[in-house]
Design brief:
Layout lengths: L1 H5 L4 H10 L7 E7 L3 E6 L3 E8 L2 H12 L7 H6 L1 E3 L5 E11 L2 E14 L9 H4 L10 E5 L5 H14 L9 E5 L20 E5 L3 H11 L4 E4 L5 H12 L3 E7 L3 H5 L5 H5 L5 E6 L5 E6 L5 E4 L3
Length: 304
């Protein structure tokens, strides 16, 4: 899937990237490009720079053409969100001049900053925690961590094991609501990542609508969803749980205190929706810092 990233670039940058990252793609987290500056490579443990090639306006235009297939108009929605997901589940963050209307983002233009975050499939990275999330049946679980702590990587592996079966636990019917096309990395509806034998995927589908669609038409036992946050997501989660579906989801956050301060999440805590909380740390890729039970008591520390 690294080819999906390399094909975005003109030959000079493609060759430099290939040379600098040879046999180290699995350690690369981000490629950051800023107009008229060297290219920054962020690895798991350190940062490197490609000094010999500066990112020019011609390079920027080439990259935009590849991302948009020569039509920025078709990417209007993505530009408002500030990112584009490409084949392989890699996410390209964008920055430049923001155009607003009545206080909300209308579009992004003069794009001169790019952040390519590489999607990584790390099988068995969640096997140390799976049995802690099961007591006769799977338990509603919230995976918490700041950006770049491996939340999507963990939840992808959980999907794979839950839907395929693990140890003494039989396979369950799973539905992945993949709004950003990052969990399954579907291409033409076909997942490029292994998300499990009994998994169905609603690709590029808004989370709240997708959860309701899944319940109506796919009869899932487990729903997996990435990056919840707003009140619509919370309402859909509550509806799914009342329908008897188990939820596994991720959220941006640093701590339980951080999450409890958000008004949109209050119903989840007031009704004790989640029976397990998995906290991730930036010190690994991913590092599972703690698992908390439904009373927020520590079950285990530093598992991987």
């Amino acid at each position: 899937m690294i080819t999906d990233v390399l094909n975005l670039f003109p030959l000079a940058i493609k060759q430099s990237l290939a040379n600098c990252t040879k046999q180290r793609w699995h350690m690369l987290q981000e490629i950051r490009l800023r107009l008229n500056r060297p290219i920054e490579l962020i690895f798991d443990t350190h940062v490197e720079w490609i000094e010999q090639v500066k990112f020019s306006s011609e390079h920027s235009q080439y990259l935009l053409n590849q991302l948009s297939e020569f039509s920025l108009y078709r990417l209007q929605d993505e530009l408002r969100e500030g990112y584009i997901t490409i084949s392989g589940g890699h996410r390209v963050g964008l920055a430049g001049e923001v155009s607003t209307l009545n206080g909300t983002v209308k579009s992004l233009k003069h794009i001169t900053f790019f952040n390519i975050r590489l999607a990584k499939e790390k099988k068995y990275c969640a096997q140390n925690i799976l049995l802690k999330l099961y007591e006769q049946s799977y338990l509603n679980t919230l995976i918490i961590g700041p950006p770049q702590t491996g939340k999507t990587t963990i939840i992808r592996d959980l999907s794979r094991m839950i839907a395929t079966g693990y140890n003494y636990i039989p396979a369950k019917k799973v539905c992945v609501i993949d709004e950003r096309s990052e969990i399954a990395a579907s291409k033409n509806g076909i997942p490029q990542h292994d998300v499990g034998l009994r998994t169905d995927v609603l690709d590029a589908c808004p989370k709240a609508e997708g959860m309701m669609m899944a319940i109506r038409s796919l009869s899932p036992e487990v729903i997996i969803v990435d990056e919840i946050g707003n009140s619509q997501d919370v309402h859909a989660l509550m509806e799914a749980i009342h329908a008897g579906v188990t939820i596994f989801c991720t959220i941006h956050g640093h701590s339980m205190i951080d999450l409890k301060a958000r008004p949109s999440l209050r119903p989840l805590f007031e009704q004790h929706v989640f029976k397990r909380y998995v906290l991730l740390s930036r010190k690994g890729s991913p590092l599972i810092q703690q698992i908390l039970d439904n009373e927020e008591k520590i079950m285990r520390r530093a598992l991987s």
